[in-house]
Design brief:
The complex is a heterodimer of chains A (634) and B (241).
Chain A lengths: L1 E3 H5 L8 H11 L2 E5 L2 E5 L10 H8 L17 E2 L4 E3 L5 E11 L8 H9 L7 H13 L3 E5 L7 E7 L2 E4 L5 E4 L2 E7 L2 E5 L3 E2 L11 E9 L1 H4 L2 H4 L5 H8 L6 H13 L4 E10 L7 E3 L2 H8 L5 H10 L3 E3 L2 E3 L10 H12 L21 H12 L3 E2 L5 E2 L19 E2 L4 H12 L5 E13 L3 E13 L14 H9 L10 E3 L12 E7 L32 E9 L5 H9 L6 E12 L4 E10 L8 H16 L4 E2 L4
Parallel strand pairs in A: 4-15, 5-8, 19-22
Antiparallel strand pairs in A: 1-3, 2-3, 6-14, 6-15, 7-14, 8-11, 9-10, 11-12, 12-13, 16-18, 17-18, 20-21, 22-23, 23-25, 24-25, 26-28, 26-29, 27-28
Chain B lengths: L20 H16 L2 E2 L5 E2 L1 H4 L19 E2 L4 E3 L4 H10 L4 E10 L10 E12 L3 H16 L5 E8 L2 E10 L5 E10 L1 H6 L7 E9 H9 L12 H4 L4
Parallel strand pairs in B: 1-5
Antiparallel strand pairs in B: 2-4, 3-4, 5-6, 6-10, 7-8, 8-9, 9-10
The chains are: A alpha+beta (634), B alpha+beta (241).
């Protein structure tokens, strides 16, 4: 909600700067940004009472002296005779109608009404609607204006349950479904209560006689309607959060005053309906409880002074909560009020000491498995559980994001296959992934299983020992026998026939319940150490990579290290990584053969062969300067 | 020809995998909290409305309960938990105070854009004992934030609103660019929630806090797009060894 600084400060005797008000608002818990002289406010959902100038002033009153200049019409008003019936008094406990007739529609707005449209750069609509919108901004109470000439029958407020057509005053046609609180006239819905009025009864630029409706609707009846029907509605935003049920008389009298400041009123009358008295919340004065909750030590005088400034009334040992603060019900609520006034950051810390728990290492087996897999080059992944494929046991999401995410997965492996293909498309030729997750299914109730799934394909590793070895069932079986020699795991080969890939490497998977692993695994000693800090991420490239291999013959063994130092540390913006993929020492021929693989990739552009050759030739040139080293065939 | 018969082969570089950065961050935070005395409790990701909302004082009218905010399953008989708080409810129902629980894991909300994902991770904690105060909560939060971001970090507490805590606060840290960044939510456990778990709120009070793991991981690792965490791209994952 946007609120102009000038509209607030005119009521504050101390004339605080925009920065001072901003600091005060933050202390009170009202987040905002400042754009020019405008506060763009974001209120917590429990503070619907602050969605107005007056609401904010009520809170700011703890820091400043508020002097209101909002005059109201104070004279006696005639009783309005209107054919109205409230059939849903549990939803609308209180409603008032004001009828006004003016002689001429004003073209120019002045004073606070004029400032509202000017300072907030708002578009005008029609006079009565404009007054209504301003009044909502000033008081927090939405009102709705009907052109009185269109109200030519019995007006009903009721909750309908079924399909109805409704055209809003914004020319939007809506198909109402389910339960909706509405106003009807001659069996036609003319107002979606608390959200938006209808076109057929709305005011126009020519409207001179208006019926202003001022109501209290239970938030539960309004919540979700604006989202359901995709309507931007300031009124529903306020009704959903609760408005002040005791404000109607003052709001309508203020309406009259504003109209009267712009036009000559020929006739006016008012009527109110109230099905029950509004509940009054009273909480015993208990400053020691407040001190205990916050961890402070304030006097009862100081305590009550804070609450008085916020509009609470103290009488006979009780704190009477004002009607606009429906969110305050308990001592903890009052403690929050006090803490806000003091300022959360001004509350001194009190040392906490939590008794130590005896239980530790809650997922010992699972963690040991993770470290074991890490040691063998596996990367942990996390996948979304939402999938499109259904199986008989899959749990269906009632309200999925889209049809591709309509079910919860019943296995992890399919997610890992997608992960594998994703990485193969990025030219990865050694892929080892695992995921541990809860998996849910439905058969005779909801079943939960915690599972480990692994997938591996391609080279065993990117080093000279493992480069030419391919991952297969035997490799993984041997691996797992290292930690659980008595267990046999059912590794599976995934057929590539249905996968959109030309790569032929075998894909090996395993999906197994975590419960299957015995405590034997706890004897495994991991070599991997977890990172002590948090690595700074370097943005990755999605552009294609190119690979270049260089194989050397080394006769002077002493130069081997020099060559490694040069190539493994070679610096270039387009070299992504380099490793030794081949090493062979031929004792008979007194020769070492060593092969290096370079991966080229740019973060900015797809590399062309000339760019790669330039770096490649420099590598070759620099390496051949080392005596006793040659590149066979070159 | 020099004699180098005993020359060693090149160092064999075996590629070590990595934990997922989100799990690593979650484990780090949970281990920190365990060192403070918290005990780990676990719970299901598929929850009932009772545990996810009712017991936590989230009323039927609360927007979070709408179909556009929460994933419901099995003809609305259950839902995907929207926070890890129901685990603490289960813990409080099983054990009497004093108690100190943490729970961590996946949670789900019906969001999907560049800054929000339908699945993300939380760690939450609760401590219930006699005379637990907001001033003590502040002490705990300072300890957590200082451990995560160093003792030079500037932080502030802002009043906020959660149905299950009262008073409630959000905590921001000041970034090196001078912007306040929201880090966690916390507060004193709403007495209604304690009573829902048959804990005498006249005798006991509690504190609770919750952290979004992705947000902290993004800040600590310098990741700017939350979606990167879940692409399973080896070029991304290999940076977190």
């Amino acid at each position: 909600m946007k609120i102009a600084y000038s509209h607030l400060v005119q009521h504050l005797e101390e004339n605080p700067s925009i920065e001072q008000i901003s600091d005060s608002l933050f202390q009170l818990g009202h987040e905002h940004e400042i754009d020019g002289g405008i506060f763009d406010m974001e209120f917590t959902p429990n503070r619907g009472d602050c969605l107005s100038i007056n609401g904010l002033l009520r809170d700011l009153a703890v820091f400043y002296t508020v002097a209101s200049n909002q005059d109201i019409f104070t004279e006696k008003l005639n009783e309005l005779l209107i054919d109205f019936e409230n059939l849903s008094e549990s939803i609308c406990t209180q409603i008032s109608f004001l009828k006004l007739e003016i002689d001429e529609v004003p073209e120019i707005y002045k004073d606070s009404l004029g400032d509202y449209f000017l300072d907030l750069s708002l578009n005008k609509n029609n006079f009565f609607t404009d007054v209504s919108n301003y009044l909502s901004y000033e008081t927090g109470q939405p009102t709705h204006c009907y052109d009185a000439n269109t109200i030519n029958g019995k007006l009903l407020f009721h909750e309908i349950d079924g399909d109805e057509e409704f055209e809003t005053l914004l020319d939007k046609k809506i198909a109402l479904t389910g339960k909706n609180a509405v106003f009807s006239l001659n069996n036609e819905v003319i107002n979606l209560a608390g959200v938006v009025g209808g076109k057929s009864t709305s005011c126009s630029a020519n409207t001179k006689t208006v019926i202003v409706e001022c109501a209290f609707f239970q938030p539960e009846a309004i919540i979700g309607k604006s989202v359901k029907y995709d309507i931007q509605s300031e009124a529903s935003h306020k009704f959903e959060r609760g408005v002040d049920p005791d404000s109607h008389d003052r709001v309508l009298r203020r309406f009259i005053k504003l109209v009267n400041g712009h036009a000559n009123i020929k006739d006016m009358s008012i009527t109110s309906y109230k099905s029950k008295d509004n509940p009054i919340t009273q909480i015993p004065v208990n400053v020691s409880k407040i001190n205990q909750i916050i961890g402070i030590n304030i006097s009862v005088k100081e305590y009550l002074s804070y609450l008085s400034k916020l509009g609470f009334v103290i009488k006979e040992g009780f704190i009477k909560v004002p009607s606009f603060r429906s969110d305050v019900k308990t001592q903890n609520d009052l403690a929050e009020e006090v803490a806000r006034v003091i300022g959360y950051d001004n509350i001194a810390i009190s040392e906490i000491s939590i008794p130590k728990s005896e239980k530790t290492n809650h997922k010992a087996i699972e963690n040991k498995l993770r470290y074991f897999l890490l040691d063998h080059g596996f990367y942990e992944v996390i996948n979304s559980p939402f999938v499109s494929l259904s199986s008989e046991e899959a749990i269906k999401v009632d309200n999925p994001l889209d049809s591709n995410r309509e079910y919860l997965r019943t296995n992890i492996t399919n997610s890992l296959i997608d992960n594998l293909l994703f990485n193969e498309r990025r030219q990865k030729d050694s892929i080892k992934l695992f995921e541990i997750s809860d998996v849910y299914s439905s058969s005779n109730g909801i079943n939960k299983k915690r599972k480990l799934s692994i997938i591996a394909s391609g080279r065993v590793g990117l080093n000279y020992e493992d480069f030419s070895k391919k991952i297969n069932k035997k490799y993984l079986t041997t691996l797992f026998q290292e930690i659980l020699s008595n267990e046999v795991f059912d590794f599976e080969i995934v057929s590539r026939e249905l996968l959109n890939t030309k790569i032929k490497n075998e894909i090996v998977t395993l999906e197994v319940d975590i419960d299957r692993f015995s405590t034997d695994i706890l004897s495994y000693t991991e070599t991997a150490k977890l990172p002590e800090g948090f690595a700074q991420y370097s943005p990755i490239s999605d552009l294609p990579s190119s690979f270049k291999d260089i194989s050397y013959s080394i006769k002077d063994y002493s130069k081997t290290q020099e060559l490694q130092d040069l190539l493994l540390n070679y610096q270039s913006d387009i070299i992504k990584n380099v490793y030794i993929f081949d090493y062979f020492k031929n004792e008979k021929q007194e020769e070492i053969k060593i092969g290096f693989r370079f991966a080229f990739q740019s973060k900015k552009t797809t590399l062309n062969s000339a760019e790669i050759e330039l770096v490649y030739n420099d590598i070759v040139s620099q390496s051949l300067r080392i005596e006793g080293i040659s590149i066979p065939g070159m | 020809m020099p004699e180098h018969k005993d020359i060693l082969p090149p160092k064999l570089v075996k590629d070590r995998g990595s934990l997922h950065p989100i799990n690593h961050m979650k484990d780090s935070i949970m281990n920190l909290l365990i060192s403070y005395g918290f005990e780990v409790v676990n719970g299901p990701e598929i929850e009932t409305e009772e545990f996810n909302f009712d017991m936590l004082n989230i009323k039927k009218s609360h927007p979070a309960r709408q179909m556009h905010d929460t994933f419901y399953v099995e003809n609305k008989s259950n839902l995907l938990r929207t926070h890890t708080s129901p685990v603490q409810i289960r813990g409080m129902l099983e054990k009497k105070p004093p108690l100190a629980f943490i729970s961590g894991g996946k949670v789900y909300r019906k969001d999907d854009d560049s800054t929000h994902l339908p699945m993300f991770h939380q760690v939450e904690g609760i401590y219930v004992d006699e005379n637990v105060s907001f001033a003590q909560l502040k002490d705990l939060i300072y300890k957590i934030i200082y451990s995560l971001f160093g003792e030079d970090v500037e932080l502030r507490f802002r009043p906020s609103y959660f149905p299950f805590t009262e008073p409630s606060a959000e905590v921001d840290i000041l970034s090196t660019e001078g912007k306040w960044l929201e880090i966690l939510g916390c507060g004193l456990v709403n007495p209604i929630v304690l009573e829902n778990c048959s804990i005498d709120s006249n005798k006991y009070s509690g504190l609770a806090f919750g952290l979004g793991i992705e947000r902290i991981a993004m800040l600590k690792h310098g990741v700017t797009d939350i979606r990167e965490f879940y692409k399973s791209n080896l070029d991304f994952l290999s940076q977190f060894k």
